[in-house]
Fold:
Amino acid sequence: MTVSGLLSNLQYRGEAVGLRQTYHVFEGSHHFVVLSFSRTKADSGNFNIVEAEALKYVRAKFAGEMGLTAKELHNRCRRPQYVKTPLEALNILYILVALDQAQLDHRFEARELHFNIKP
Structure:
């Protein structure tokens, strides 16, 4: 994947509000880009790339799940090529929120974020 291929024709799909940050989601031809701005450094931030196939797999396998954390998603995923780390699982969950296919579950007081994936 080239940089020009990665960043060309991105379309803004929405945002997901986490505990401390807002994550902006862009969709490319075969991938999503999750972007967040730094709270401490002006004009800085981070981005993560998630393959569209990974999102499709998680959406199909975990539809209807309630109170799902990124760690649980990573541990229960049977296709490690799609969800390699808990951070990648968290980015997938943020994308689902931005696409209105999941929402944060505020019933839990734990430090970890919990998500409800729509059926």
The chain has a mean pLDDT of 92. Residues 3-117 form one domain. The first strand starts at residue 11 and ends at 17. Strands lie at 11-17, 22-27, 31-37, 45-51, 102-104, 115-117.
